[in-house]
Amino acid sequence: MTQQPLRWNADALGNHRYLLQVDAPAKAVHVVIPWRRRDAQPQHVAVIVTAPDGSTVANVRRGRIDQASGELVFQAAQAGTYAVYYQPYVSKGRSNYPTVSYAEPSDTADAAWARKVGDATHWTHLPQAKVLRYEAVDDFDAYTSMERTATPAEQQALLAGHGSDALLLFPETRANPIRMFDALPESWAKRGAGGTLSDTAQRGEYLSFQVGAWAPRVAVNHVDVRFADLRADDGSIIPASALTCFNLGGIGYDGKPFTSRVDVAQGRVQALWMGLDVPASAKPGVYRGEVIVSADGVAAQSIPMAITVGEGNVVAHGDDDPVKLTRLRWLNSTLAQDDSVVKPFTPIAVKDGTLGILGREIRLDASGLPAQITSHFDERMTGFSGQGKTLLAAPVQLIVEDDGGAHVLKGAHVPQIHSDGPGKVHWQVGASAGALRGDVNASLEADGTLVYSIALSAAQDVSLRDIRLSIPMQHDAARYQLGLGRQGDRAPDDVGWKWRVQNNQDGAWIGTVNAGLEFHLRDENYRRPLNTNFYQQQPLRMPASWDNQGQGGIRLRNEDKDYLAEAYSGPRQMKAGETLHYDIVMRVTPFKTIDPAKHFAERFFHKYGDLDAIKADGANVVNIHHATPINPWINYPFLEPAAMRAYIDAAHQRGMRVKIYDTVREVSDRAPELPMLESLGHEVISTGKGGGFSWLQEHLDGDYIAAWHVPENRDAAVINAGQSRWHNYYIEGLDWLARNEGIDGLYLDDVAYDRTTMKRVRKVLQAHRPDPLIDLHSASQYNPRDGYINSALLYMELFPYIDRLWFGEEFDYEKTSPAYWLTEISGIPYGLMGEMLQNDGNPWRGMLFGMTNRLGWSAGSDPRGLWKLWDAFGIEQAEMIGWWVHDTPVKTNRDDVLATSYVRKGRKTLIAIASWAPQKVEVKLAVDWKALGLSPAKATFTATAVNGFQPQATFKAGEAIPVEPGKGWLIEVE
Asked: What is the pLDDT of residues 219-239, one digit of tens each?
């Protein structure tokens, strides 16, 4: 389904036209075009008439213009075929986020000609142009039969036959998706309401279909759908349980069943999408049943069904052809929705009140909150230490303060742990704090995520001074902090923060490289905000408990005995029977070790291209963006399967791997499911002001957020609403891609889903690939448009399940501190490594963290010289010892010039040096020769020439090394 050539210049003329035949030249010809338009106010939109030679006709007069038809008179200097373009538009703004408006009518007619033509009462006496046909600029832009509106007279005739009926029903097959929700299609008005839903399916196929429900007179509420068994003449049955109505609910992204209420406003059409799971064992024949639709105050109506089941059997329910909409059943999928573990995580070990996970332990207090957290990750982040590092100076506490003092939430004893599976455990505590009862429901997962739902209830009216959370951390475990409106850096001595809906902030991360704690404060009404340019359109819901009408906040304080993070909610009155939800999400970092050898061995090429050329350049992993020949449509990588499979197979034959761009932040207008998703209200598609590229305005209902647009192939997308069943579809889609296309992983370009879906992504890919690759790109979200959220904090919940970071546009590699690099960009404190993007990065500073830019992204993004140096040195056999390690074997004599060592002990060491000094400086290296396994007397210091990075140079042990500001060296010692 590649983009076909356009039949004319849509940017000048619009996407739609009618062709007219004029038999003979005339001063003026008359025509009434029965265009049956779906745009609400066609009288305010210009028309352009072109002559057979392509010239624009200036002498045009407009008569009656409405949705049903358009009356025109124009000068016809030539005989032949004329074209009337009736939705010309004007596009402004960024091409990827265009602002499209429709041209307003303007009078271009010569005054003398217009006087001769006279008014519309005389036009019927003029020669008549013949309407030949409707055309669109390409097939995809064409209005379907379901977008041709019924005239008012046709609607009235239809209603006259239905007395005072409040709800009229119109069955439709999947071949004709309902696309208008504020107008009736011509076909419905002419054929009438009711009738039989007739269709054909093969054995094993998932057959989707629709019933349109129109409320012409009054609003109709609480629509309900029931099904009867389908029966064949020989007595064979397809049970009613094989049928579903997607609009009335299903299985959520979290695996939990839900129901939805469907109301139909007066004058609106509601498409009710349904599906029939035809058993693979069904006998061929005609199966008859019925769909019963009712509503509050509306009598049940029956739509007969006649489904012909053929002799053939389909593969995988027919999912290999997305146009057939068999994949709608994916919306209710529970694939990979379980509590198993994925590599590298290990099953949770439970011993009394202590929970053991990969590299970490959490000991619970009688409140159910952590009494102590211990990390066994070493500072190198490549392994584990026998000596654990404790995070907490005292237990985490929830404190209720009233006139009688401060009361710590406490249970009678350490809670009993219950297993949900190897990857998850949970516990409950019945606790109290002063006059309040606390019900604590908590869980821990194998990646280190702790989720607390804490309900505080008042048995009687009570006056409270505060309810607060206290997290006292060890000083040496609280070196760095990010979040709460601060970019990653050294942990501040004193910070005061208040809740603001303008900011996407509800928590922070505090820690050091090998031990840290992320926390977020929420309540029972939490909904994941939109991100990446769209936060302000669906911002954070203030948690009523923590925010307390603006009185709540968070304090960070460096105290004598600890580093205290304290979340307070301030004074309030609680009524008898009132319950407040003080929910908390915590994550213990790091999640996993880094693997520098694996990282350096995987060389990324971030562009579609010739595989032999890519391999010759030294890359072995290809990231396929959207808007490429094998993946043309954003977040809908299913429409060029043969081309994608051939490319991936060719890569595998060359020992290379291929990952594709696919996420759920937005969905392409090319998705065949889009009309159905519209029928779900705003379950999947975000509410918004509409606009954007012309296709969206012409074919959607107007209530959406226009997203990314690729002008080269006219791909336009809409923003998806936070968490929805589209995530279930996405998981099934990845499974299909892994099975059928052979993808080796995913390239995620910002992400609109949470860890629930991310875990499923990892599980699905690992089921088909022993070592799938998932890398995450993000532009910096630290700006007012995105609510000043740190990308690392926004996506930290996903970090356990991805392999690499690429942070990203608008990240500042020049004017930020080493602590910012460590916490915001590198990923190392969380168990990840990455690459740089903005302005091709800073290669000298990047090498302190094992980072380069990414080949293929831009002309300046060329790490091949560094790759060559790595290979000559043998970096994959080296141990990476970062500048942050307390006993790093190579240090400089300056705090603003840092060194990371790549040690092949006893053989050679590669020293990466990078400067943050404001001017050129000379540094001397302090070398622990024993740790390197080298003799200082025999050591040579050599800098290999790398184009754009460093010249050839040699140094002696103890010699001062000149370092330019913002630059550095890679020096080999052997």
From this structure: 999 999 999 999 999 999 999
Question: SS3 of 39, please?
Answer: coil
Calculate the alpha carbon distances from 486 to 507, 530, 787 in Å.
11, 20, 12
Distance of alpha carbon 569 from alpha carbon 554, whole angstroms: 9
The candidate with the shortest Cα–Cα distance to 20, out of 86, 83, 87, is 83
Helix (H, G, I), strand (E, B), or coil: what is residue 560? coil
* Residues with Cβ within 8 Å of residue 370, at least 6 apart in sequence: 362, 363, 364, 392, 395, 396, 450, 586
Of 730, 734, 700, nearest to 717 by C-alpha is 700
Quick one: how far is CA 204 from the chain centroid?
32
SS3 439: strand
Average pLDDT over residues 788-814: 97
SS3 643: helix
914 residue type, one letter:
A
Mean pLDDT of 679-704: 97
Strand ranges, E, within 297-369: 298-313, 349-351, 354-357, 360-364
Q: Which of 170, 190, 174, 175 is nearest to 270 (CA)?
A: 170
- As a whole number of angstroms, the distance between CA 40 and CA 270 comes to 18
Contact 117, 671 (CB under 8 A): no
> Rounded to whole angstroms, what are the CA distances from 152 to 155, 157, 182, 330?
5, 9, 13, 39
Residues 505 and 371 sit within 8 Å (Cβ to Cβ): no
- Alpha-carbon span 51 to 105, nearest angstrom: 19
Helix (H, G, I), strand (E, B) or coil at 798: helix
Please calculate the CA angle 540-541-545 and round it to the nearest 5 degrees.
125
**The pair of three-digit structure tokens given for residue 403, joined into one six-digit string:** 């006139």
CA within 13 Å, CB half, 304: 8
pTM metric for this prediction: 0.96
Q: Is the dihedral of CA 866, 871, 877, 878 positive or negative?
A: negative
Determine which helix (DSSP H) or strand (DSSP E) holds 909, and give its type and residue range.
strand 908-915
C-alpha 751/C-alpha 789 separation (Å) is 14
Q: Are the CB atoms for 608 and 528 separated by under 8 Å? A: no
How far lies 187's CA from each of 149, 153, 253, in Å?
8, 14, 36
Secondary structure string (H, E, C) spanning 659-681: EEECCCCEEECCCCCHHHHHHCC
pLDDT, position 298: 96
CA distance 542 to 782: 20
What is the pLDDT, as a whole number, of residue 93? 85
Contact present, 514 and 589 (Cβ < 8 Å): no
Q: Which residues pair with 905 in a beta bridge?
A: none
- Quote the CA–CA distance of 480 and 819 in Å, as a whole number: 7
At a CB cut-off of 8 Å and minimum separation 6, what does 351 contact? none
Query: Which sign, positive or negative, has the C-alpha torsion 956, 960, 964, 965?
Result: positive
What residue type is assigned to position 517 of the chain?
A: L
Q: Is 127 exposed, middle or buried (0-12, 13-18, 19+ CB in 10 A)?
A: middle
Q: Is-contact 346 430, C-beta < 8 A?
A: no
DSSP 352-384: TTEEEETTEEEEEPTTSSEEEEEEEE-TTSSSE
Using 50, 70 and 90 to split pLDDT, how confident is the model at 722?
confident
What's the mean per-residue pLDDT of the chain? 97
The torsion angle over the Cα atoms of residues 892, 898, 903 and 909, rounded to 10 degrees, is -60
Let me know: does 608 contact 624? Beta carbons within 8 Å.
yes
Return d(Cα 724, Cα 682) in angstroms, integer.
Answer: 9
Rg (CA), the chain: 33
Q: In angstroms, how far apart are the furthest CA atoms of the chain? A: 108
**Residue 337 to residue 577: CA distance in whole angstroms:** 36
Residue 241 makes CB contacts below 8 A (sequence gap 6+) with none
Nearest to 56 by CA among 5, 109, 96, 104: 109
C-alpha 371/C-alpha 590 separation (Å) is 19
pLDDT computed for residue 94 by the predictor: 84
Tokens 């010289």 -> residue: 865
